[in-house]
Specification:
It is a single chain. With 69 residues, this protein is mainly beta. The protein has one domain: Beta Barrel (OB fold (Dihydrolipoamide Acetyltransferase, E2P)). It is 0% helix and 52% strand. It contains no helices and five strands. It has a five-stranded antiparallel beta sheet with strand order 3-2-1-4-5, with no helix packed on it. A hairpin with a 2-residue loop joins strand 4 and strand 5. The two termini are 19 Å apart. The mean pLDDT is 92.
């Protein structure tokens, strides 16, 4: 499961982007946090996610926060 860091996020639009660990940019849209319990994202926050194809563009799905114990 890929991981990355939130690059930018607009809570009003519920959209933004993240950088995978290989520095590839992936889009975040309203469906990215569907059913995850995540209410907002912060720049620099670490997340795990699945990648889906949405009309020829890669988007994050199933975002989960990465926590360190």
């Amino acid at each position: 499961m890929p991981q990355g860091t939130i690059k930018d996020y607009d809570p009003d639009a519920r959209a933004g982007s993240l950088l995978q660990d290989d520095r590839t940019e992936i889009l975040i849209d309203q469906d990215s946090t569907e059913g995850s319990g995540i209410r907002t994202l912060r720049i620099g926050q670490r997340v795990a996610f699945d990648v889906a194809d949405d009309g020829g563009r890669q988007v994050a799905r199933g975002l989960r926060l990465v926590t360190f114990s």
